[in-house]
Write a structure and sequence with these properties.
The complex is a heterodimer of chains A (about 190) and B (about 725).
Chain A: H1 2-12, H2 20-24, H3 27-32, H4 34-39, E1 42-49, E2 52-57, E3 61-66, E4 80-86, E5 89-95, H5 96-99, E6 124-130, E7 133-139, E8 141-148, E9 153-154, H6 158-163, E10 167-173, E11 176-181, H7 183-187
Chain B: H1 5-32, H2 39-58, H3 62-79, H4 87-108, H5 115-131, H6 142-145, H7 149-154, H8 157-168, E1 173-181, H9 185-196, E2 200-207, E3 216-225, H10 229-236, E4 241-245, H11 256-264, H12 270-278, H13 308-311, H14 328-357, H15 362-392, E5 394-396, H16 398-415, E6 419-424, E7 429-431, H17 432-453, H18 457-462, E8 469-478, E9 481-488, H19 495-504, H20 510-515, H21 518-522, H22 546-555, E10 559-565, E11 569-577, E12 582-590, E13 593-598, E14 602-609, E15 614-616, E16 619-624, E17 627-633, H23 634-637, E18 647-655, E19 658-664, E20 666-674, E21 688-693, E22 699-703, H24 705-713, H25 715-721
Parallel strand pairs in B: 6-8, 13-22, 17-19
Antiparallel strand pairs in B: 1-3, 1-4, 2-3, 5-7, 8-9, 9-11, 10-11, 12-13, 12-20, 14-18, 15-16, 16-17, 18-19, 21-22
Helix pairs in contact in B: 1-2, 1-4, 1-16, 2-3, 3-4, 3-5, 4-5, 14-15, 16-17, 17-22, 24-25
Classes of the chains: A alpha+beta (about 190), B alpha+beta (about 725).
Chain lengths: ~190, ~725
C-alpha cells in the first residue's frame, strides 16, 4: 500500500513543490556569517575632549555643526548646556566632560553674548541620535573617521569601567588610542 | 490577528464618525419619543448600527460587533413598529452607544479587553431581551386597500410596515410612475424622491413592469401623503412622473423577479429569513434566534441586510463628503514649515532694509525697494497659508456637546432629577487639541451642576420653581477667545457652607475666611480637596473634580471663573484661546535674556517702585488696587545675575483664579510665536512651556505661567524639582 502511494507520489511529483531547499536557506547564513561579521571594521567618528580622543560609531552621528548660539534653560541639570535651533527643531545640547568626569563644572557657553566664554575655534556640536531623540553634544574638536575592527577593540581597563560606565572599550590603531563611548549611556 | 496600526486608526476614525452620528440621531429620537417618530430617522439609526457592526466585525472587534448587532436587532424591531420606543428601550440604546464608545477607546489604545467588554455583554443580553417582546401584530390593514398580492410580495418587511402605518393613519396612498432614460435614471429618480419627500413618505420604489419609452426604465413609487393631489402634481410637474391613486385596480404585471420571489416566498418563514440574515457573521456565541418571534400573517421578501439598497438606486460607492481625514501631527509639521518660512522672510526683509540703508548707490536703493515690496507680498501670502493651516485644525465644539448631551440624560435619571439641557454655540470652532482636552473638564462641571446644583423636583416645587431644572451649555467666540458657560438654575453656592468646609479642611484659616469677599469665597471651590457634597454619590462628590477641572483648563491656557447667586443658580465660565499652535506673546527681557510670556495669561503691566515691595512671611508681595499679589522676580527664580533696579516692570499674569506679578527688567513688545515643545528630558523642566525662535537663530524660551504660579502658591513643590 505504502509503496503504491510512493509510486503515485512520484508520478504526481512536481519539482516546484519541493520546498526543502527553501526552508533550509534561512539557516545557512546564520552558520557562516558570524566570522566575517566580526572582522568587518566599524567606522567611528573621533573627537577630542580635554586632549583625549574619543570615538563613537559613525551611524550615531547625524551631523557636525559649528557651535550655534545656545539658550540656557534655567534650573536644568548642569550637564545640559542649553538648547539650540536646528532648522526649526529645538534640540538640547549636552556637555560630555562632566559626564566623563573630565571637568567639575560646565563651561558657560549659553546665554547672552556678554556672559559667554569664548570657545576654541575648533569646537563643534555633534548632532547625535540619543535615547530621547536627537541631541547635540559639545566637543573641543572633531578629528577624523577611523575604521576599527573588533579585534582592534579591547575592553575598558577595570579601573575605568566602574566610574565611567559609558566607556565601552578602547580602540587601538597603530600608536593611537581611542576611548569608545556608548552615547545612549552617556546622555541617558 | 492584529490589523496593522494604520488600519486600526482608520477603523477608530470611521467608527467614531458613525458613533457621533448615532449619538446625535438617538437624542433626536428621544425627543420625538412622545410624539410621532420620523421613520427616516429610525431607519438611519438602524443603518448606522448596521454599518458599525460590519465595520467592527471586519476589524476583529468582536465585542463591539456583538453589541452593535444587539442594538441593530432592537432598532430593526423599532423601525418595524414591533416594539414601542419606550424609555427603557431608548435608554438601553443610549447606554449601548456609550459602551460602544468605551470599547472603541479601548480598541484604539490596543489594550486588552477591559471591563467595557463585560458591560457590553450584559447590555447585549438586555437588548436581545428587549428585542424579543413586543405588542401583538395589528390586524392586517393592507387587506383593506386591496393591494395586489404580486406587489405585496416584493415589499420588504420594513416597507410593508411603513405601508401599514400609513394606512392605519388614513394617509392617502399614491402611485407615482416615473420613467427615465437608462443612462441617467439614478439622477432622475433622486430628483423625483427629492420632490416627493417634503410632501410625504416614499414608502417603496419598485421597478415597473411597463417599460419606459425606448431604452428607458420605469419605476413605481408607492407614496403616502396627506397633501392635496394638486400639490403633488405641482411638485412633479417638471419631472417625467405620473401620479395616480393607489387602489385595488389590477396592478401592472409583476416583473419576473417579483414573480420568482412571490413563488419562493411561501416556503420561508420570517424567523428563518431573519436567521439567515444574521448568519453573515458566523461566530457569535451570544446570538440566539429571537425567541417567540411574532409572525406576521403576511409573508415578506427579504433582499439583504438593508432594504434601502433597492430603494435607493442612486447609491454610489463614491463617498458623500469632500472631507479628508488628516493626522494632526501632519498639520503640526506644516505649521512648523510655515514658521520657518516666516523666519526666512524676516531675513530677506533685513537684507532689503540694509540695501535701502546703504543708499549711496541709487541702484542699491532701487533694488532694496523692490525687494522690500516683494517681501510684503510674501508676508501676505504666508499669513494666508498660516491662517489656512490653523483653520484646518479647527473643529466645532458640537462634537463634544453632543456627547455631553447624552451624558446629561443618564446622569439626570441616575440622580432622580428632571431637567432640560439647553445647548447653544455648538458651531463655534476651536483647535482640535483643545476640543479633545475639553470634554473631561466639561463633563466634571456638568456633573457638578446636576449633582449639587439642580435640586430634586419636590424641593424645587417647594421653592416655587418649576419642577424641571435647566442646565445650559453655551459657547461663544469673542475675538481670539472662546467663552464657554455652563449654568444651572439650581440652589446656587452655599457661601456659609463653603466657608465652614474650607476652614474644616484647613484650606484657609477662620479669620481669612471671614475677610474674603464673595467672589474669593466662591472661588474656594476650585481648591484641591474641596467638596461640599454631604453624600458621596456615584456622580460626584469624591473630593476631586473642580480642582482637576481648573488644572486642565489652565493647561489649555484657559481661565475658569464661577459666579453664583443663592437660590438662583450657578454659572461657570471658561475662557479659552482659539488655538495653541500660534500664540501672541509678550516678549520680556531679564538679565539680557529674552523670554516670551503667552499674552492670553497677561492681565496687565504695571510699574512698581522698590519701596512698594513688602514681605509677608518672607515672601515678596505688592499691592494692586487693594489686592495683595505675590511679587516674583524672574531673575531670582531662574538664578540669573540680578540687576539693581529701583523700578520694576511687573507683568501681572492670571490663570484660572490666581494672580501673580512677574518682575522683569524690560518689555520688548508683542509678537506672534509658534511654540515648539521641548522634547525628551527637557519636558520636565518646571516653568518652561516650550521654545520659539525669532529669526536671529537664537531660541527664546516660552514661560509656562501655570507652572510658575503653582510654584509660588505651593513653594514646597518647587523643592521637589531642585
Amino acid at each position: 500500500m505504502s509503496r503504491f502511494e510512493e509510486l503515485l507520489g512520484d508520478f504526481f511529483y512536481r519539482p516546484d513543490e519541493d520546498t526543502a531547499g527553501l526552508l533550509e536557506l534561512p539557516e545557512a547564513p546564520a552558520d557562516s556569517s558570524p566570522a566575517p561579521k566580526e572582522e568587518r571594521p566599524g567606522e567611528h567618528l573621533v573627537f577630542v575632549l580635554e586632549g583625549e580622543r574619543y570615538a563613537v560609531p559613525i551611524g550615531k552621528v547625524r551631523e557636525i555643526l559649528r557651535v550655534p548660539p545656545l539658550t540656557e534653560i534655567p534650573r536644568a541639570p548642569s550637564s545640559l548646556l542649553g538648547v539650540m535651533n536646528l532648522r526649526g527643531d529645538v534640540l538640547p545640547v549636552y556637555d560630555l566632560k562632566m559626564r566623563l568626569k573630565l571637568s567639575g563644572q560646565p563651561p558657560r557657553v549659553a546665554g547672552p553674548p556678554s556672559e559667554v566664554e569664548p570657545l576654541p575655534r575648533a569646537a563643534r556640536v555633534l548632532v547625535v541620535h540619543g535615547p530621547d531623540g536627537d541631541a547635540g553634544v559639545l566637543v573641543d574638536a572633531v578629528s577624523e573617521v577611523v575604521k576599527l575592527a573588533p579585534s582592534q577593540v579591547e575592553p575598558p581597563p577595570p579601573g575605568l569601567s566602574g566610574e565611567r560606565d559609558c566607556v565601552v572599550g578602547l580602540g587601538r590603531q597603530e600608536e593611537q588610542l581611542f576611548i569608545l563611548i556608548d552615547l545612549d549611556e552617556a546622555l541617558g | 490577528m492584529s490589523p496593522p496600526a494604520k488600519g486600526l486608526s482608520e477603523f477608530v476614525a470611521e467608527a467614531n464618525e458613525i458613533l457621533d452620528l448615532l449619538g446625535r440621531d438617538l437624542l433626536v429620537l428621544d425627543e420625538q419619543r412622545r410624539s410621532e417618530l420620523d421613520p427616516d430617522l429610525v431607519n438611519r439609526i438602524f443603518r448606522g448600527a448596521h454599518s458599525l457592526k460590519g465595520l467592527s466585525g471586519m476589524f476583529g472587534q468582536d465585542a463591539m460587533a456583538d453589541l452593535a448587532h444587539a442594538a441593530e436587532e432592537v432598532l430593526d424591531r423599532l423601525r418595524l413598529g414591533k416594539i414601542e420606543p419606550s424609555a427603557p428601550v431608548v435608554d438601553s440604546l443610549v447606554e449601548a452607544l456609550d459602551a460602544l464608545q468605551a470599547l472603541l477607546s479601548e480598541a484604539s489604545r490596543e489594550g486588552h479587553e477591559g471591563r467595557s467588554a463585560e458591560r457590553a455583554k450584559l447590555l447585549a443580553n438586555r437588548l436581545s431581551s428587549l428585542a424579543s417582546f413586543g405588542p401583538p401584530p395589528s390586524s392586517d390593514e393592507l387587506d383593506e386597500i386591496g393591494l395586489p398580492a404580486q406587489i405585496r410580495a416584493v415589499f420588504t418587511e420594513y416597507e410593508e410596515h411603513r405601508l401599514k402605518e400609513n394606512v392605519r393613519k388614513g394617509v392617502p396612498l399614491w402611485r407615482v410612475r416615473a420613467a427615465f432614460d437608462l443612462t441617467d435614471f439614478d439622477v432622475g429618480l433622486a430628483k423625483v424622491n427629492d420632490a416627493l419627500k417634503p410632501l410625504g413618505e416614499v414608502i417603496s420604489t419598485l421597478p415597473s413592469a411597463e417599460p419606459g419609452a425606448g431604452s428607458g426604465i420605469a419605476f413605481d413609487l408607492i407614496f403616502g401623503s396627506k397633501s392635496a393631489a394638486e400639490r403633488i402634481h405641482q411638485a412633479l410637474i417638471e419631472l417625467p412622473a405620473k401620479l395616480a391613486p393607489l387602489s385595488g385596480q389590477p396592478a401592472p404585471a409583476p416583473s419576473p423577479v417579483a414573480e420568482e420571489k412571490a413563488a419562493a416566498e411561501p416556503a420561508r418563514k420570517p424567523a428563518t429569513t431573519k436567521r439567515h440574515r444574521v448568519s453573515v457573521r458566523p461566530r457569535r456565541p451570544t446570538e440566539a434566534p429571537p425567541p417567540a418571534r411574532v409572525e406576521l400573517p403576511r409573508l415578506h421578501a427579504e433582499e439583504g441586510p438593508t432594504p434601502t439598497e433597492r430603494r435607493e438606486p442612486d447609491l454610489s460607492l463614491r463617498s458623500l463628503t469632500q472631507t479628508v481625514r488628516v493626522d494632526i501631527r501632519r498639520l503640526d509639521s506644516l505649521m512648523n514649515a510655515v514658521g520657518e518660512l516666516l523666519l526666512i522672510r524676516a531675513n530677506v526683509q533685513r537684507l532689503a532694509e540694509s540695501a535701502l540703508a546703504a543708499g549711496a548707490h541709487a541702484v542699491s536703493k532701487l533694488w532694496g525697494q523692490e525687494l522690500s515690496r516683494e517681501c510684503r507680498a510674501l508676508e501676505r501670502k504666508l499669513d494666508e497659508l498660516q491662517t489656512g493651516i490653523l483653520d484646518a485644525r479647527m473643529v466645532p465644539l458640537g462634537q463634544v456637546f453632543d456627547k455631553l448631551a447624552r451624558l446629561v440624560r443618564r446622569l439626570a435619571r441616575e440622580a432622580g432629577k428632571e431637567l432640560d439641557f439647553a445647548v447653544s454655540g455648538g458651531e463655534v470652532e476651536l483647535d482640535k487639541l483643545i476640543v479633545e482636552e475639553l470634554s473631561d473638564p466639561l463633563m466634571h462641571i456638568i456633573r457638578n451642576a446636576i449633582d449639587h446644583g439642580v435640586e430634586l423636583p419636590d424641593e424645587r416645587a417647594e421653592h416655587g420653581k418649576p419642577r424641571r431644572g435647566t442646565v445650559s451649555l453655551r459657547a461663544e467666540q469673542r475675538g481670539n477667545h472662546v467663552v464657554i458657560e455652563v449654568s444651572d438654575d439650581g440652589s446656587g453656592l452655599d457661601e456659609s457652607r463653603i466657608r465652614q468646609v474650607a476652614v474644616q479642611r484647613g484650606l484657609v484659616v477662620a479669620d481669612q475666611a471671614q475677610e474674603m469677599n464673595r467672589r474669593e469665597l466662591q472661588n474656594l471651590i476650585f481648591l484641591p480637596g474641596f467638596s461640599t457634597a454631604r453624600s458621596v454619590s456615584a456622580i460626584s462628590g469624591r473630593g476631586v473634580g473642580l480642582d482637576v477641572v481648573k488644572t486642565n483648563i489652565a493647561n489649555l491656557s484657559g481661565i475658569i471663573d464661577v459666579s453664583s447667586e443663592a437660590g438662583r443658580g450657578t454659572t461657570l465660565t471658561l475662557t479659552l484661546p482659539v488655538t495653541l499652535a500660534i500664540i501672541r506673546a509678550l516678549m520680556v527681557s531679564v538679565s539680557d535674556r529674552t523670554y516670551a510670556v503667552p499674552l492670553n495669561s497677561v492681565l496687565e503691566i504695571v510699574s512698581v517702585e522698590g519701596s512698594e515691595i513688602r514681605t509677608v512671611e518672607r515672601r515678596e508681595v505688592f499691592s494692586l488696587r487693594g489686592r495683595t499679589l505675590p511679587f516674583m522676580r524672574l531673575a531670582r527664580l531662574f538664578a540669573l545675575p540680578e540687576r539693581p533696579l529701583s523700578r520694576h516692570f511687573v507683568v501681572v499674569v492670571g490663570l484660572a483664579q490666581e494672580r501673580l506679578g512677574l518682575a522683569v527688567d524690560e518689555l520688548i513688545g508683542q509678537q506672534d510665536i509658534v511654540i515648539k515643545p521641548l522634547g525628551g528630558k527637557l519636558r520636565h523642566i518646571p516653568g518652561i512651556a516650550g521654545a520659539t525662535d525669532l529669526g536671529n537663530r537664537r531660541t527664546v524660551l516660552v514661560l509656562d505661567i501655570g507652572a510658575l504660579m503653582e510654584e509660588v502658591i505651593s513653594p514646597e513643590r518647587r523643592a521637589e524639582f531642585i
